[in-house]
Amino acid sequence: MRGSTVFTIGELARRTGLPVKTIRFYSDEGLLPPTDRTPSGYRLYDTAALARLELVKTLRELGIGLSDVDGALAGTTTVPALAARHVEALDEQIRRLRLRRSVLRAVAKRESELDEVKLMNKLASMSDEERRALLDEFWAEVSSGLEVDPDLYEWMRSAKPDLPDDPSPEQLEAWIELAELVRDKDFRALIRGMSEGNARRRAEGEDLSPPDEDKRNQWAEWADRAHAHLEAGLDPASPEGRELADEIANGSATPGQEPGDPAFRRELADKIASGSDPRAERYWQLLATINGWPPVPTRQPAMDWFIGALRASAN
């Protein structure tokens, strides 16, 4: 070693900023074998050992464990392979930390008690697969054994909650509320009842396919007008209510149905009411918040108003 540059542990500590105790530990673990020893038995290290120590320091600062560091130094794995594996692990840790942050923000906002905090944390910690499985199980239960319209129900089943890695408190609260909603027995009974009605009408030959864009726009326009009349304080039995009821009846009647028939109007009002419930609407509002879709405005008061207009026009 004469003529070569060598360093004591103390000199390595000054050059790397690592404590002597840490360097000695690395050396004892075999990560930094001494190059030579002094006559008194003190360990000495050459420039290659210094470079090795710098690599150990860097990998440890990046959170890589001693066994993985040893593998990289021994050549049984590569630094890029280690980095890729640890990036995946860090991504998962970051995701969980962000969820915890959102849970805590939601807890603070809602002033939650202990039991609710436990439930919120459990629901927030679900994986994407677990969230989707919860909704799959919900739709399976509410339509099991029923000959419901396959296209309509497949469309409804396809809408899944996709909570982002860094959800806002609003998104997290929306997911928790949605999870509580689909687990609620009364809500399941409500949607089961709607499904039974769907199966019955389908068996009677009614066309239950999802409305096209023009029809959806037409119903939205009727709902907007009903909302405006409601805001203006008009009664569903008013002339404006009668006018709107006439348009809804004329636009909803199929061949063979008489739009002016009071029985048809009462039946139409009952059908709209059977598929109209604030909790069902809330389901889609929550999904929109979770997934970052455009907000779903509440139309329930307007629906109630023109259901009342249809019934009033049948008297």
Features:
rod-shaped, Multidrug-efflux Transporter Regulator, Chain: A, Domain 2
Please explain how this structure is put together.
With about 325 residues, this protein is mainly alpha-helical. The protein folds into 3 domains: about 5-75, Multidrug-efflux Transporter Regulator, Chain: A, Domain 2, CATH 1.10.1660; about 95-200, no CATH class; about 210-315, no CATH class. It contains 15 helices and 3 strands. It has helices at about 10-15, 20-30, 45-60, 65-75, 80-110, 115-125, 130-145, 150-160, 170-185, 185-205, 215-230, 240-250, 260-275, 280-290, 300-315, and strands spanning about 5, 35, 45. A 3-stranded antiparallel β-sheet has the order 1-3-2. The longest helix is centred in the N-terminal third of the chain and has 32 residues, at about 80-110. The termini are far apart. The model has no long low-confidence stretch (mean pLDDT about 90). Pfam families: MerR_1. Keywords: DNA-binding. This is MerR family transcriptional regulator.
The averaged pLDDT comes out at: 89
Radius of gyration, in Å, reads 34 Å
Main β-sheet, spatial strand arrangement: 1-3-2
Roughly how many Å apart are the termini? 110 Å
Total helical elements: 15
Number of domains: 3
What structural class do helix, strand and pairing data support? Answer: mainly alpha
